[in-house]
Design brief:
Blueprint: H1 3-16, H2 36-43, E1 47-49, E2 51-54, E3 68-71, H3 86-95, E4 97-100, H4 106-119, E5 124-125, E6 149-151, H5 163-170, H6 175-182, E7 187-197, E8 204-207, E9 223-226, E10 229-232, E11 235-240, E12 250-253, H7 266-269, E13 288-292, E14 297-300, E15 311-319, H8 343-348, E16 360-362, E17 369-373, H9 376-386
């Protein structure tokens, strides 16, 4: 074995003795520190610029509640500790989604709804060819007239209105899930979209999924499970502003379709056949639904109470650091999107590139950031080779 390889293996072995997981939380404890000098030396790679973050969890000795540790990224990636619980991992891998309970309080949800009420006149109803549930008489068409209402722009709303919508990017209850499912340096891929369904509003034919109708793989939506870990190429996160009970409509899914080896038949996508395979989960206001876009999903016409007869949810999508499906970040995010954002929020809105190239990474607390710093001698070399003064290839 090459000397450098032996050193890397020693580093991996040493690292395993430093990571401890909490027995008192639904998620593993945030990353604990490994000497940045030792990792950099062993891997002959980038240097680590770390900032202390406070652990949110209580774990067995020697770690203590409130103990300050350095949170950082290394080439070891997610081997450093972010995991779902056994039950969460089983549920997500089996069905393609999980519901994270009570992420937002009742007061926060009420505040978000009041802000949405103010912007309700700006909603755009889907009519004509934009309707999503098919022609009148189809299972997902609702009354055949009323269309879904869409609203965007909430990240750029003025101060006093945008804060809770921006909080979805870095919420400390959600960051560990985002990292576990998308990896360190996860990024917002789509601009957030508020969906409003009035009673008897049309639904949305099932879409997404692992395979195209010709059986080809959809790489941009892919879900993989490697070495005991899930990897989502595109992760959806939907915060419920109203409660949905099973059977009332709203989000519906074909559980397990993210691992199907056969395309979903068109009649199943329209809920004309095999309706027993569809699940319409209960989601209470304040909960956040997480699902891989590789799992075929849709929307059932709304028949519930909601808020004054309306169902509301705000949908976000996240991707790994070096992947992109959407392109709203080009040439830059829409005006006002990043105005007044915290460093942590801005880190989630970086364009796609590998964490090794000086990417700001969000700590578990959702506030502090850390950087995996590319070595100066490498940047100097790349600046000469590629005539790029910033020193990147």
């Amino acid at each position: 074995m090459h000397r450098g390889s032996r050193q890397v293996m020693r580093t991996l072995s040493l690292h395993s003795t430093f990571v401890r997981t909490s027995t008192h939380s639904s998620l593993s404890a945030p990353f604990t520190s490994v000497s940045s000098a030792r990792v950099s030396s062993a891997l002959g790679e980038n240097q680590l610029k770390s900032h202390p973050c406070t652990l949110r969890n209580t774990s067995s000795p020697p770690w203590r509640k409130g103990q300050r540790r350095h949170v950082h990224e290394t080439l070891l990636g997610r081997a450093m500790g972010h995991k779902l619980t056994e039950e969460e991992l089983f549920a997500f891998d089996l069905s393609g989604f999980i519901v994270v309970k009570n992420v937002f309080s009742e007061a926060e949800i009420e505040r978000m709804n009041l802000v949405v009420d103010k912007h309700e006149p700006e909603m755009v109803e889907r009519k004509g060819q934009l309707r999503l549930g098919g022609k009148k008489g189809m299972p997902l068409a609702g009354d055949g007239t009323t269309g879904r209402q869409d609203l965007g722009g909430m990240l750029a709303w003025p101060k006093g209105e945008n804060e809770l919508f921006r909080k979805m990017l870095t919420h400390p209850k959600l960051v560990p899930y985002y990292i576990a499912l998308c990896g360190e340096g996860y990024r917002m891929d789509h601009l957030p979209l508020l969906i409003q369904q009035k009673r008897n509003c049309d639904g949305f034919d099932f879409h997404g999924g692992r395979l195209n109708q010709d059986g080809s793989w959809i790489q941009g939506l892919a879900y993989e499970f490697v070495n005991g870990r899930p990897y989502c190429h595109l992760l959806a996160a939907s915060v419920a502003l109203t409660t949905t009970k099973t059977g009332e409509g709203g989000y519906a899914v074909l559980p397990g379709s993210h691992k199907s080896n056969v395309p979903v038949p068109p009649d199943v996508m329209k809920m004309l056949k095999q309706t027993e395979s569809v699940r319409n989960p209960e989601i209470e206001k304040g909960d956040v639904l997480l699902f891989t876009e590789a799992c075929t999903h849709g929307t059932i016409p709304w028949t519930g109470e909601g808020r004054d007869g309306k169902r509301r949810a705000v949908l976000y999508r996240f991707a790994p650091a070096n992947m992109a499906y959407g392109r709203s970040y080009l040439p830059e995010w829409p005006k006002g999107t990043t105005d007044g954002m915290s460093d942590g929020e801005k880190a989630v809105l970086q364009p796609p590139f590998n964490p090794r190239l000086d990417r700001n990474l969000l700590c578990d607390d959702g506030e502090q950031t850390t950087t995996f710093v590319r070595a100066d001698f490498k940047k100097a070399h790349d600046a000469k080779v590629f005539n790029n003064p910033e020193g990147y290839f």
